Amino acid sequence: MQFFKQAFIPPFHIKEVINQCYEIGLRALPLITLTGFIIGIVFTKQSRPALESFGATSWLPSLMGIAILKALGPLVTALICAGKVGSGIGAELGSMRVTEQIDAMEVSAINPFKYLVVTRVMATSITIPILSFYCIIVGLLGSYVNVRAEEATSFLTFFKNAFSTLQFLDLSTSVVKALVYGFTIGIVGSYKGFYATQGTRGVGKAANQAVVMAMFLIFVEEVIIVQIANWIRYY
Amino acid sequence: MMENQKTTKIINRDIPVITIKDLYKSFEDLDVLKGVNLTVYKGENVVVLGKSGSGKSVLIKIIIGLLKPDSGEVMVLGQEVDKLSEKELNALRLRIGFSFQSSALYDSMNIRQNLEFPLTMNKKNLTKQEIENEVVEVLDAVGLENKMNDMPADLSGGQRKRIGIARTLILRPEIMLYDEPTAGLDPITCFEINRLINQVQKQYNTSAIIITHDLTCAKETGDRIAMFVEGKFTRIGDFKEVFDSTDEHVKGFYDYNFIK
User: pLDDT tens digits for A182-208?
Assistant: First the structure.
């Protein structure tokens, strides 16, 4: 609640939000590139035999489009960011708390919650949807590399087929998912770090709990959002 | 350094800047402050002397509004801290400098950014040149003008303390609160910090509360000493008045520090 109260009252610390977006994006980008690409290759390779047995390998790009855009892209990005970014935020703010840096802000008449928590939550909420779509593109590229190795499908045909069965609802569900995951990672990491106690032990605990709790919440949110999307689709 | 600057100490005993009356504070079952009374006058350095873990830091954290008292009254610059709104409290905090025991420098920022940060966040109308001038001035005041682009991790304990003091000075405080300024430092660095505290008092005409268990620091920097024993002040006066006593706690403290 405090986040929503603080987020809409000036000053907005836009510069710090941009700085955090850059930090978060840069921190997670190499791992997301690697993971997204490998997922694309492996998932395509494993799906091919099953589709072959039905003589439906031409459906491979569509299957990959659905799997990566609707489920794998946002989920994999969120799990990587929960580990990489969430733990980083938890540890950073936790160490600032135990070394009195947060108190130092407060006594300098700077609102530490607004400067540290609000900016980070905003940054994760902006960056993780962007990273999710980057992961989707990289995943589909990985998938295309595997498809191209097996058959002479052009780049354009692959992507045309990959997106042919997708609807606006699929795209908007992925955006909402990524947004919710980003918010979750930011708020959990910040909360655990900002209220860390017990010295250096507390810092480790904050980083660890930030990851575990964010991952748990992400899975719960995945189930809920998919249920809501299906409900919208059928009714 | 600032030796060339103003070097006279002006204490005005008609103007109290901090008044504490019957202050109580507990943490769960532990009573930390048990009826504290103290007045600090304009331009005066008051040293709060007591054992580690006795609750001295709690006292200054209440003064700056980081902790809330259970009961009692804390008046700072004519305002009752506990009754202020967040906006009023922040306005008051701009008039108080707080030097942390751990220095509490921002690890992710270099020294220049550490000093600029409180200024840019609180005084939006300053130009880049004005900010630069302020940074140079306070760094010169603490004698570390050549460390501007270093990271806090590259500094020694004494240098970190001095930068911590510089960071508070940049907002031109009227009151300084020092939490264990010489803790963990070698005697020569302690001497430099003591000298810096006195110079800050003279150059910026600040009043101060200095929390310490270091008797040399108390003797060097304190206009008055307040002996803090078991949650309250048992003796308040100048160094001679306080230590001219047969009180077991006071005597023990003196004997230990001066290895009698």
Answer: 999 999 999 999 999 878 889 999 999
| Residue that terminates a domain, selected from B172, B190, B222 | B172
Put simply, the answer to whether B171 touches A108 (Cβ < 8 Å) is: yes
Q: Say if residue B85 is in the same domain as residue B9.
A: yes
**Pair B228, B48: CB distance under 8 Å:** yes
For residues A16 and A61, the answer to whether their CB atoms sit within 8 Å is no
The residue of chain A with its CA nearest to that of B116 is: A108
Residues B146 and B203 in one domain: no
Q: Which amino acid would we find at residue A210?
A: A
Whether B59 is in a domain gets the answer: yes
Q: What would the pLDDT profile of B212-245 be if each residue is shown by its tens digit? A: 988 889 989 999 999 898 888 988 888 888 777 7
Which of B73-92 are b and which e, b meaning 16 or more Cβ less than 10 Å from the residue's Cβ?
Answer: ebbbbeeebeebeeeebbeb
User: Mean pLDDT per segment of 10 residues, for chain B of length 260 residues?
Assistant: 57 89 91 93 93 87 94 94 93 94 92 94 90 92 90 93 93 94 88 90 92 90 91 87 75 64
Which residues span the domain enclosing B164?
106-172
The answer to whether residue A9 neighbours chain B at the CB level (below 8 Å) is no
Min Cα distance A85 → chain B (Å) is 16
Burial-class residue B99 by CB neighbours within 10 Å (0-12, 13-18, 19+): buried
> Which residues in B lie closer than 8 A to residue A109 (C-beta atoms)?
90-91, 93-94, 118, 121-122
Instruction: State the total domains in chain B.
Output: 2
